[in-house]
Design brief:
This protein is globular. Strands 1, 2, 3, 4, 5, 6 and 7 form a 7-stranded mixed beta sheet that branches. With about 150 residues, the chain is an alpha+beta fold. It has helices at about 5-30, 30-35, 55-65; strands spanning about 40-45, 50, 70-85, 85-100, 105-120, 120-135, 140-145. It has one domain (about 5-145): Nuclear Transport Factor 2, Chain: A, CATH 3.10.450.50. Helix content is about 30%, strand content about 50%.
Length: about 150
């Protein structure tokens, strides 16, 4: 058996499971589970608002999530490049939200990520989140082409 292929498959499954844990925590508003997916010195760029360190990342997430009556995130396709204990990749997502005032939004988005394996566990090292589309479900909202 080819050990390199096995390790790549194991790493890909672990990276997919990391996003699964992240998404599940978002959908359940579970801050403890959500922040556990991040490395200690991580950075997050949320729609042009960059923050560094787990405490600041958690603070921004809690602020953002506090504005929603509900938010549902569903990851779609992804690609990874693994190099030892470091990796990079991206995810496409489909999201539905309703804010506290009852305004609804459909969002198509992308995360560009770097990952680090610490103590045998993959974690997010950096995430850069951007909208591809946001607006109504009829696609009359704002579209930003992928660069």
């Amino acid at each position: 058996m080819n050990t390199t292929a096995t390790n790549n498959l194991e790493d890909e499954i672990a990276l997919r499971n990391l996003m699964g844990k992240y998404t599940d925590a978002v959908n359940r508003y579970d801050a403890d589970s959500w922040i556990s997916t991040w490395a200690e010195g991580a950075s997050w760029n949320l729609l042009g608002t960059p923050v560094e360190g787990k405490d600041n990342i958690l603070g921004l997430w809690q602020q953002m999530m506090g504005g929603f009556d509900f938010a549902l995130m569903m990851p779609n396709s992804c690609l990874f490049e693994v190099d030892g204990d470091n990796a990079s990749g991206h995810w496409y997502l489909h999201e539905y939200t309703r804010d506290k005032e009852g305004n609804t939004m459909t969002i198509l988005s992308r995360y560009e990520d770097t990952y680090i394996k610490e103590a045998g566990e993959w974690l997010f090292k950096s995430r850069n989140y951007s909208f591809i589309y946001h607006g109504g479900p009829d696609l009359s909202g704002t579209y930003t082409p992928i660069a």
